[in-house]
Design brief:
The protein is α/β, with parallel strands linked by helices and 262 residues long. The chain has 10 helices and 9 strands. Bound molecules: S-adenosylmethionine. The site of S-adenosylmethionine has 19 residues, from loops.
Length: 262
Protein backbone atom coordinates (compact mmCIF):
# COMPACT_ATOMS: atom_id res chain seq x y z
CA UNK A 1 0.00 0.00 0.00
CA UNK A 2 1.51 3.32 -1.02
CA UNK A 3 0.97 6.21 1.34
CA UNK A 4 0.71 9.87 0.28
CA UNK A 5 2.81 11.54 -2.43
CA UNK A 6 6.35 12.57 -1.58
CA UNK A 7 6.49 16.08 -0.14
CA UNK A 8 8.59 18.90 -1.54
CA UNK A 9 11.24 18.32 1.14
CA UNK A 10 12.14 15.12 -0.74
CA UNK A 11 12.13 16.77 -4.20
CA UNK A 12 15.87 17.20 -4.24
CA UNK A 13 16.41 13.46 -3.94
CA UNK A 14 14.01 12.56 -6.72
CA UNK A 15 16.63 12.06 -9.43
CA UNK A 16 15.04 8.59 -9.59
CA UNK A 17 11.76 10.20 -10.69
CA UNK A 18 13.43 11.99 -13.60
CA UNK A 19 11.99 10.95 -16.99
CA UNK A 20 15.47 11.21 -18.54
CA UNK A 21 17.00 8.77 -16.07
CA UNK A 22 16.08 5.10 -16.06
CA UNK A 23 17.53 3.24 -13.09
CA UNK A 24 16.36 -0.09 -14.51
CA UNK A 25 18.62 0.49 -17.55
CA UNK A 26 21.57 1.24 -15.27
CA UNK A 27 21.63 -2.48 -14.49
CA UNK A 28 21.93 -3.62 -18.11
CA UNK A 29 25.44 -5.08 -18.46
CA UNK A 30 26.00 -5.08 -14.71
CA UNK A 31 25.27 -8.76 -14.06
CA UNK A 32 28.58 -9.13 -12.26
CA UNK A 33 27.80 -6.35 -9.74
CA UNK A 34 24.20 -7.53 -9.26
CA UNK A 35 25.23 -11.16 -8.69
CA UNK A 36 28.05 -10.05 -6.35
CA UNK A 37 25.48 -8.25 -4.20
CA UNK A 38 23.21 -11.31 -4.13
CA UNK A 39 26.18 -13.44 -3.02
CA UNK A 40 26.95 -10.95 -0.24
CA UNK A 41 23.35 -10.81 1.00
CA UNK A 42 23.13 -14.61 1.05
CA UNK A 43 26.42 -14.88 2.92
CA UNK A 44 25.45 -12.33 5.56
CA UNK A 45 21.87 -13.52 6.08
CA UNK A 46 22.53 -17.27 5.82
CA UNK A 47 20.42 -19.27 8.35
CA UNK A 48 18.66 -16.11 9.56
CA UNK A 49 14.97 -15.37 9.44
CA UNK A 50 13.13 -12.20 10.38
CA UNK A 51 9.51 -11.35 10.92
CA UNK A 52 9.48 -7.84 9.43
CA UNK A 53 12.20 -6.51 7.11
CA UNK A 54 12.53 -3.13 5.41
CA UNK A 55 14.25 -2.47 2.07
CA UNK A 56 15.07 1.21 2.67
CA UNK A 57 15.68 3.13 -0.56
CA UNK A 58 14.69 -0.10 -2.28
CA UNK A 59 14.06 1.60 -5.65
CA UNK A 60 12.22 -0.57 -8.18
CA UNK A 61 12.76 -3.59 -5.94
CA UNK A 62 15.88 -5.08 -7.54
CA UNK A 63 16.90 -6.72 -4.26
CA UNK A 64 13.51 -7.04 -2.57
CA UNK A 65 12.86 -10.62 -3.82
CA UNK A 66 16.02 -11.95 -2.16
CA UNK A 67 15.10 -10.13 1.08
CA UNK A 68 11.67 -11.82 1.07
CA UNK A 69 13.47 -15.18 1.34
CA UNK A 70 14.72 -14.13 4.77
CA UNK A 71 11.59 -12.46 6.14
CA UNK A 72 7.87 -13.11 6.58
CA UNK A 73 7.11 -9.63 5.24
CA UNK A 74 9.11 -6.81 3.61
CA UNK A 75 8.31 -3.09 3.52
CA UNK A 76 9.86 -1.42 0.48
CA UNK A 77 10.43 2.28 1.24
CA UNK A 78 11.53 4.83 -1.35
CA UNK A 79 11.14 8.60 -1.91
CA UNK A 80 10.61 8.08 -5.66
CA UNK A 81 7.03 7.57 -6.86
CA UNK A 82 8.36 6.28 -10.20
CA UNK A 83 10.52 3.60 -8.53
CA UNK A 84 7.70 2.51 -6.24
CA UNK A 85 5.29 2.18 -9.17
CA UNK A 86 7.82 0.03 -11.05
CA UNK A 87 8.31 -2.08 -7.91
CA UNK A 88 4.58 -2.59 -7.49
CA UNK A 89 4.37 -3.88 -11.08
CA UNK A 90 7.21 -6.37 -10.79
CA UNK A 91 6.86 -7.62 -7.23
CA UNK A 92 3.43 -9.17 -7.50
CA UNK A 93 2.75 -12.27 -5.43
CA UNK A 94 5.40 -11.47 -2.83
CA UNK A 95 4.75 -10.44 0.78
CA UNK A 96 5.79 -6.83 0.15
CA UNK A 97 4.21 -3.54 1.25
CA UNK A 98 5.13 -0.29 -0.49
CA UNK A 99 5.64 2.95 1.44
CA UNK A 100 6.68 6.32 0.06
CA UNK A 101 9.31 8.18 2.07
CA UNK A 102 7.86 11.63 2.54
CA UNK A 103 10.53 13.30 4.62
CA UNK A 104 14.25 13.40 3.98
CA UNK A 105 16.33 11.39 6.48
CA UNK A 106 13.20 9.80 7.92
CA UNK A 107 12.65 6.06 8.20
CA UNK A 108 8.87 5.70 8.07
CA UNK A 109 8.28 3.15 10.81
CA UNK A 110 7.41 3.09 14.52
CA UNK A 111 10.12 2.86 17.18
CA UNK A 112 11.50 -0.68 17.70
CA UNK A 113 9.28 -2.22 15.01
CA UNK A 114 11.69 -3.59 12.36
CA UNK A 115 13.65 -6.85 12.64
CA UNK A 116 15.93 -6.31 9.62
CA UNK A 117 16.64 -3.07 7.80
CA UNK A 118 18.49 -3.33 4.48
CA UNK A 119 20.01 -0.21 2.92
CA UNK A 120 21.91 -0.90 -0.29
CA UNK A 121 23.22 1.72 -2.74
CA UNK A 122 21.60 4.54 -0.77
CA UNK A 123 24.60 5.74 1.27
CA UNK A 124 25.78 7.22 -2.06
CA UNK A 125 22.99 9.81 -1.66
CA UNK A 126 23.62 10.71 1.97
CA UNK A 127 26.11 13.59 2.33
CA UNK A 128 25.39 13.46 6.06
CA UNK A 129 24.43 9.86 6.92
CA UNK A 130 24.18 10.42 10.70
CA UNK A 131 20.45 11.37 10.86
CA UNK A 132 19.53 8.25 8.84
CA UNK A 133 21.76 6.05 11.01
CA UNK A 134 20.00 7.45 14.11
CA UNK A 135 16.66 6.67 12.46
CA UNK A 136 17.76 3.11 11.68
CA UNK A 137 18.69 2.66 15.34
CA UNK A 138 15.31 4.06 16.40
CA UNK A 139 13.20 1.72 14.23
CA UNK A 140 15.19 -1.48 14.93
CA UNK A 141 13.75 -3.82 17.50
CA UNK A 142 16.13 -4.85 20.32
CA UNK A 143 17.96 -7.81 18.77
CA UNK A 144 17.17 -6.46 15.28
CA UNK A 145 19.77 -6.19 12.52
CA UNK A 146 20.80 -3.74 9.80
CA UNK A 147 22.52 -4.69 6.54
CA UNK A 148 24.18 -1.56 5.21
CA UNK A 149 26.09 -1.02 1.97
CA UNK A 150 28.76 1.66 1.95
CA UNK A 151 29.95 3.38 -1.23
CA UNK A 152 33.62 3.00 -0.34
CA UNK A 153 35.95 5.97 -0.84
CA UNK A 154 38.77 3.89 0.66
CA UNK A 155 38.72 1.16 -2.01
CA UNK A 156 42.05 -0.16 -3.21
CA UNK A 157 42.39 1.83 -6.44
CA UNK A 158 41.38 5.08 -4.73
CA UNK A 159 43.79 4.44 -1.90
CA UNK A 160 46.64 4.22 -4.42
CA UNK A 161 45.49 7.61 -5.78
CA UNK A 162 45.53 9.16 -2.31
CA UNK A 163 48.97 7.67 -1.58
CA UNK A 164 50.28 9.10 -4.87
CA UNK A 165 49.25 12.56 -3.61
CA UNK A 166 50.60 11.91 -0.07
CA UNK A 167 47.08 12.16 1.36
CA UNK A 168 44.96 10.02 3.67
CA UNK A 169 41.47 8.90 2.71
CA UNK A 170 39.17 11.59 4.21
CA UNK A 171 37.10 10.59 7.21
CA UNK A 172 34.18 12.71 5.96
CA UNK A 173 31.96 11.97 2.91
CA UNK A 174 33.53 12.89 -0.44
CA UNK A 175 31.28 14.41 -3.17
CA UNK A 176 31.61 12.66 -6.53
CA UNK A 177 30.23 13.16 -10.06
CA UNK A 178 28.25 16.33 -10.82
CA UNK A 179 27.97 17.07 -7.12
CA UNK A 180 31.76 17.18 -6.87
CA UNK A 181 31.62 20.20 -9.19
CA UNK A 182 29.57 22.14 -6.68
CA UNK A 183 26.16 21.56 -8.28
CA UNK A 184 24.05 21.79 -5.14
CA UNK A 185 20.77 21.44 -7.08
CA UNK A 186 21.54 17.94 -8.23
CA UNK A 187 20.95 14.77 -6.22
CA UNK A 188 23.99 14.39 -4.01
CA UNK A 189 26.45 11.62 -4.84
CA UNK A 190 29.09 10.90 -2.22
CA UNK A 191 31.49 8.17 -1.19
CA UNK A 192 32.18 7.31 2.43
CA UNK A 193 35.02 6.16 4.61
CA UNK A 194 33.70 2.81 5.96
CA UNK A 195 35.51 3.36 9.27
CA UNK A 196 33.50 6.55 9.90
CA UNK A 197 30.19 4.84 9.08
CA UNK A 198 30.96 1.88 11.30
CA UNK A 199 31.88 4.22 14.15
CA UNK A 200 28.55 6.05 13.80
CA UNK A 201 26.65 2.77 14.33
CA UNK A 202 28.92 1.63 17.16
CA UNK A 203 28.52 4.96 18.98
CA UNK A 204 24.77 4.30 19.05
CA UNK A 205 25.42 0.93 20.72
CA UNK A 206 25.08 -1.38 17.71
CA UNK A 207 27.57 -4.20 17.20
CA UNK A 208 29.12 -5.08 13.88
CA UNK A 209 28.57 -8.81 13.35
CA UNK A 210 29.47 -9.17 9.67
CA UNK A 211 31.52 -7.45 6.97
CA UNK A 212 32.16 -8.18 3.27
CA UNK A 213 33.98 -6.45 0.45
CA UNK A 214 31.77 -6.55 -2.67
CA UNK A 215 32.19 -6.11 -6.46
CA UNK A 216 35.92 -6.48 -5.93
CA UNK A 217 36.66 -6.96 -9.64
CA UNK A 218 34.56 -4.08 -10.90
CA UNK A 219 37.08 -2.91 -13.46
CA UNK A 220 36.37 -2.34 -17.15
CA UNK A 221 39.35 -4.44 -18.33
CA UNK A 222 38.64 -7.35 -15.98
CA UNK A 223 34.99 -7.37 -17.01
CA UNK A 224 35.98 -7.24 -20.69
CA UNK A 225 38.42 -10.15 -20.57
CA UNK A 226 37.19 -12.47 -17.83
CA UNK A 227 33.83 -14.27 -17.99
CA UNK A 228 31.32 -13.19 -15.33
CA UNK A 229 31.18 -16.76 -13.99
CA UNK A 230 34.92 -16.72 -13.26
CA UNK A 231 34.75 -13.27 -11.63
CA UNK A 232 31.94 -14.51 -9.42
CA UNK A 233 33.97 -17.54 -8.33
CA UNK A 234 36.65 -15.15 -7.09
CA UNK A 235 34.02 -12.94 -5.53
CA UNK A 236 32.55 -15.86 -3.54
CA UNK A 237 35.85 -16.80 -1.99
CA UNK A 238 37.33 -13.33 -1.51
CA UNK A 239 34.49 -11.13 -0.18
CA UNK A 240 35.37 -11.96 3.42
CA UNK A 241 39.18 -11.82 3.32
CA UNK A 242 39.23 -8.63 1.22
CA UNK A 243 36.89 -6.91 3.68
CA UNK A 244 39.75 -6.77 6.18
CA UNK A 245 41.47 -4.18 3.98
CA UNK A 246 38.27 -2.48 2.66
CA UNK A 247 39.37 -3.53 -0.82
CA UNK A 248 36.26 -3.23 -3.00
CA UNK A 249 34.09 -0.29 -4.10
CA UNK A 250 31.21 -1.54 -1.93
CA UNK A 251 31.44 -2.59 1.69
CA UNK A 252 28.55 -4.55 3.21
CA UNK A 253 28.19 -4.35 6.99
CA UNK A 254 25.79 -6.27 9.22
CA UNK A 255 24.98 -4.65 12.58
CA UNK A 256 23.01 -5.97 15.53
CA UNK A 257 21.13 -3.92 18.10
CA UNK A 258 21.67 -5.62 21.46
CA UNK A 259 18.66 -7.45 22.95
CA UNK A 260 18.74 -5.29 26.07
CA UNK A 261 18.83 -1.97 24.16
CA UNK A 262 15.68 0.12 23.69
C1 LIG B 1 20.86 3.55 -6.49
S1 LIG B 1 19.18 3.34 -6.07
C2 LIG B 1 19.23 1.84 -5.11
C3 LIG B 1 17.95 1.07 -5.12
C4 LIG B 1 18.06 -0.32 -4.50
N1 LIG B 1 18.42 -0.24 -3.11
C5 LIG B 1 19.05 -1.12 -5.28
O1 LIG B 1 20.12 -1.42 -4.73
O2 LIG B 1 18.76 -1.44 -6.43
C6 LIG B 1 18.99 4.54 -4.80
C7 LIG B 1 17.56 4.59 -4.30
O3 LIG B 1 17.58 5.37 -3.11
C8 LIG B 1 16.54 6.32 -3.15
N2 LIG B 1 17.04 7.50 -2.42
C9 LIG B 1 17.71 8.55 -2.89
N3 LIG B 1 18.01 9.40 -1.90
C10 LIG B 1 17.50 8.86 -0.77
C11 LIG B 1 17.47 9.27 0.59
N4 LIG B 1 18.02 10.40 0.98
N5 LIG B 1 16.85 8.46 1.49
C12 LIG B 1 16.29 7.28 1.10
N6 LIG B 1 16.30 6.84 -0.18
C13 LIG B 1 16.89 7.63 -1.09
C14 LIG B 1 16.27 6.60 -4.61
O4 LIG B 1 14.94 7.03 -4.85
C15 LIG B 1 16.60 5.27 -5.26
O5 LIG B 1 15.48 4.47 -5.46
Amino acid sequence: MAQAMASTSADKINYYDDKKHNYVDFWVGRDYEHESELIAINKLLKNRHYKLAMDYGGGYGRLTPIITRYADEVILVDPSVKQLNLAKKQLTGLAVRFVIQEKKDNVPAKDASIDLLVMIRVSHHLPDPRPVIAEINRVLRPGGEALIEIANEAHFVNRLRYIKHFKNVPKEPVPIGVHANGNEDSTPFVNHNPVTIEQAFVELGLQRIGKLSVSNFRHRLLKQHIPVKALLLGERSLQRPLSVINFGPSIFLLFKKPENKR
